[in-house]
Fold:
Amino acid sequence: MISTVLPTYNRAPMSFVKGEGSWLITDTGDRYLDLGAGIAVNALGHAHPALVQALTDQAQVLWHVSNLYQIPQQQALADRLVEATFADTVFFTNSGTEACELAIKMARKYWSSKGEDRHEIIAFEGAFHGRSTGAIAAAGSEKMVKGFGPLMPGFKHLPWGDHDALRAALSERTAAVIVEPVQGEGGIRPMPDACLKGLRDLCDDTGALMILDEVQCGMGRTGRLFAHEWAGVTPDIMMVAKGIGGGFPLGAVLATENAAAGMVAGSHGSTYGGNPLACAVGAKVMEIVADDGFLSEVLRKGARFRQGLEALVAGHPAVFQAVRGQGLILGLKCVAVSADVVKAGYAEGVLTVGAADNVVRLLPALNIPDEDIAEALIRLERAATRLESQAA
Ligand code: PLP
Structure:
């Protein structure tokens, strides 16, 4: 039978009807420990009471008004983001992809409004910035762009971690560099702090704008509100999405006043971006996550999980090779086929997410209880044993 849903996903057979914290429950009552969190979206787990309350309170009074009018919930969230970050200004979107589109437009407009012909944007191999025509051109991988050409021109792709290539590529003609401080889809590959600092210096030397894509690694995942904070540098433009809505579609572009200077009235817009419902939820997520006590708990939980994962890897060398990542954006580099590890997890009632480079991603709710971390390790251990016995 032909599916009425466009078959762009290879879907697992489970169908979930309810979520509670770090757990998802199927239509047949089976419980799965969710270490994917909707791919880093459900930052506070499923059905967090404070988020349900914020959403329902707002839903009772006003869902949508156009950006033709003042939106106090949007202003309040923008104020909060500006207060907590490098940024002077915020534009709200509905997704990370839309944030990418604006980041590209903003960088190019910055230069054109100065009357300079600088439009080249440097991006990195293994990157993922979304699925729009602009975002796939930015990422540039064969898998994503094949058949969709001609692509948006003006992107140059460099190997991940090749400093010489970066130094040679960045020039007075570069408009911007776009990079994930921790590559997510690319296989949980953190950019070392020294490299992010070096990149900032190169941008400063050449005038190129630094765009950070913190759609997956931001909003507390690394144990800081945003991943770049570890390196002690700030970007000119930053893309945010996923965790900021806690499951409600919400994204944002944060920028300095200087980087955003070209974006005058009429230069960009969105029908839904920054609507009262999304911003009411986003403000509650920010209130909970942008808190030193909460973030130090993310670090503690991340360290605890990682310690268990290191033991898991050591005990199953035929399945796993290494643990990657920081805080609660973790990856298991596999020896076995990562897709088989994910499947074995399904059989043991634990949800993980595949990534490139034969990595299995672990992106649990940032408030995952310690007992669920312990349970996750038990289930991952069983999944590994299951795979080993299948191979034997
Ligand atoms: N950028 C990064 C780093 C991502 O991980 C993603 C999604 O996985 C995106 C951008 C695109 O976000 P969205 O799927 O919300 O459009």
Notes: The radius of gyration is 21 Å.
